[in-house]
Amino acid sequence: MARMKTAIGLMSGTSMDGIDVALVRTDGEAIVERGPFLSVPYEPAFRERLKQALDDAKAIRERRERPGDLFRMERDLTLRHAEAVRLFLKHAGLSASDIDLIGFHGQTVLHRPDEGLTVQIGDGALLAKKTGIPVVYDMRANDMMYGGQGAPLVPVYHQALAHQISGDQWPVCFVNIGGISNLTFLGRDGTITGFDSGPGNTLIDQWVETHAGIPYDDGGRIASEGSVIPALADRYLDNPFFTAPTRRSLDRNDFRPPEGTDAELSDGARTLAYVSAAAILKSAAHLPAQPKTYVICGGGRLNRTIMADLARLAGEQGADVLSAEATGFDGDAMEAEAWAYLAVRSARGLPLTFPGTTGVTLPVSGGVLVRPVILETERLLLSPWERGDEASLAALHATSETSLYVGEGVPWSLDYAKRRIDGWRSAFALRGLATLKLLAKDDGAFIGRAGINWYEDDGAHQVVYSIARHAWGQGYATEIAAALRDWFFTRNIADRLEGMAHVDNKASIRVLTTIGMTPTILRQVRGEPCQFFEIDRVSWERAKAIPSRNPNS
After folding, report:
1. Helix (H), strand (E), coil (C) string for 93-132
2. Which residues are annotated as a binding site for ATP?
3. Residue ranges of the binding site
4. Predicted confidence (pLDDT) per residue in 55-64, tens digit
């Protein structure tokens, strides 16, 4: 059985109203335990910048290009996601050490499936660094490389949730009414089909923002005061998208809002609400069978006018329409939950998309996994520990020789290694300082452990390192110890850094001397004689030829 992982999903959708943050515990398959949810809104000025980003993105011809303000926007967007994670963890009473993965959607600024081009801005490496949690991002691109539309990705999560729906309600169709709506059809025989169904909230949002100065029609109140304009509705519903033999993924710009002369405010909102509902039923004609139940999630389920139209149109076909909440789910959280679930699947190499969902040629996985890098040298990366790393740590100190000067002086068990990692993870979450995992920069191989620890009883910061036996003799200890020394003083953590080595550990003594530390006192540690070393800021600045911060030095 696959190990359960705790993941956070981050979703910023086509409505561009904010960041949804949700937590799930899952094996990436049929087991899903849903956790807390938080929505963090964007401020109005940032929403305006996002709208401009959509215009800037129109010039993109290669998905790594960032014309106009997009480069700065990508960083700012990522930093807002990092802050959303911080707020979520505080809200949920959790720490970064409790989370295995983040699934990061980013913001879609361009989606041209016919050209095999999709762009979601968001810097996964920066998010990992800021949160201290591994991040899976860019989950759509691989699907397109195998001939898919790059969307929708949520159907496999709907399939996992559908196990909770009673058999007499099948076939089931999940409907996500976001900026763009999409459908997931699930049959009892394992059939899974998904595709975009048409405009969801985006036309209504654009209409009321332009003509009423508000970001959306709250609850469908404006629409409830108007009437459907049949000619305007038909203009949308007669679009070839609905009758084309091949389903394709939609971009926000594929359907444009009406002109101001087409309708007054409430009639325009009422007509677009009807279009949103009718588009779902019209696209459902392409499903393998008639659904018995429609489960509605996304912000559109809160628009009572859309829901009333949808219930009436589906009822004419003998189908029921239920909100996500009526089936025990959270319609606001579902898409963010899906991204958490997809991150776990991605990390396990499981398929995210299927021929029946995106038109991909075969089931494929996707996404890019990046781990947080706290410190980087020419050959090494220093990164926080993850669950499952205890085996590597135990192997590091598995023999009498490799455990002689560390811990309790005996080979480490898996349980002991796990307890040490738990302590280091907690210390890092609390202080931003601890022993961390040391990896090879070129291939990610485990090299050992290193870091800076705070010892409360001594009131001292101490540099620590231990290199795996297979990597001895290659200068890794000196390389990481020197980098940690520079990081410590550059960050102004304190003005004095210690080191310590058993008097018989000549290799470690040589490392501490090489990085400029001088011996101080000889002291017993756990009954063993140990030599202590130190370097202060003035000595470091002098050695690095850095102007001293101390005017009297």
Report:
1. CCCHHHCCEEEEEEEEEEEEHHHCEEEEECCHHHHHHHHC
2. 13-20
3. 13-20
4. 999 999 998 9
